[in-house]
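Researcher: Go.
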Amino acid sequence: MHRAFYVEEILIDIFGHCDEVDTNVWPKGSKGLSALARTCKTFKEPALDILWSKLTNLSPLVRCLPEASFLTCTDRNYSLKRPLKQADWDIILGFTRRVRVCHLLDSCGLTADCVQELSNPPTSTASIFPKLFELAIWRPKEEIIPFLQHLTGPRLTVLKLEYPHALGDAIGTFGERCPNVATFGYACIPVKEEPDTISGLICQWSKLRFIRCKNALSLNAAARTHLSFDLFGPSSILTFQALVQCELHSRSLAAIRRFLDPCRLSMIEQLDVGVIVPPTGLELQSFLATLPDVCNHDSLIVISTWVSGFEFGLPYAAFAQHVPPYHINFHHLCPLTVFANVQTIDLSIPCGADLSERELLQLASSWPRLQVFIVGGNEGCTSSSTITLRGFVQLLERCRLLSRFSFTFDTRGYTEISQGHPWHGFGMPEDTEIRVRDSAIEEESVEALAIFFHVAPFPKFSLVFGSEYPNGERRLEPFTLYRDRWKRVHSLAQKLWEERDKLLHS
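Model: Structure:
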């Protein structure tokens, strides 16, 4: 065997790609890793470390025992035929010491009696999972409660709970058992008693840096004051000195604005906001105007806002009955120019955009590191915004890292093939996506546009355009025609790229 295979770091890197091979096996890579672990002593330890690094249920804890020790019930949960002996525990602990991540989805994979048996290891066992640092529990059942003491501990830094109603009072014990939680995620169907329970948990964690709470707006005043690390006593302003990433969900954007208004996120890098009801133009303007006071101007790099129903493709008419049509304009976005290092501005809400080319370029001058710019995500809306191809080149000169861009192009009169390099020798990153939306395009412009987009010195990108309204209606004839012409631009540009690559490699 080659001496390189005696270096454990090399083996771990190679074995980590097993999931790319065993695509039809769950967990991915388990078949290949099991075979590698049985191949030789050199492969055994690194293969087992990867194989057991993540658990999606608890059934492997009994399935690793001799087959005579367990059986499968009709509901596909495993049970034990006899009480566990010391030899059985030696086998189990030999594997569980490798577990780093545990995600329990619905059923834990064991019967209640089996869980109870596993909840009582030998007294000499300090911890069943000594390396576990991430725990996620989705819709748990009551039988898991006795085993929680072994899934929690001071090493746990990532905790995610979704719809954990069955845990009851056991939820409150996570604070004391897991004092070092830095990342916390929580989602549930609102229940009257739960906000104070979760607030009580948060008040016990002094190292929180990432929060994703779908009912975060229900946190009580004590929890928000604790998160703020206010060293100067009670204050109407809450300064969050540890939070780096925050995701908030609520029914309305106005509620989130009220929640953030007294907050100061001094280390925030990413702010994600999801709402159910589309915001009005005034609500959006008020929310965006609040951000410069709330967020650090230098650290914030991601601003993302979306509407939950819109994200799942509900008909535009469903939104129109709640919110009168409006367009995001320069005055909406102007407050965001203070964030000089922002990389993502994604306002995927069902509305249009009203930005002139001059206004867009003026905004872009404030965001030299901008990578994603999406304003108004519903293609059924009429957009008053257009950018010429010359303006697009000027935009790229200001934002050299731009890789996702959604805007309407003005291609009127672009029929002559440019001499030289219209992009002035620079390009965009790989896998760039340009959403041309419903940009009008004349038949005479197809060839010239294909050449314009193919001459850039990067390998590939995609032109994305509207095809259907969200409610499934057929587009009007002009839009169908524009869509077909943009498809031809894309196909011709692709052909030109391939011919260029052949010449470069010949």
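Model: The radius of gyration is 28 Å.
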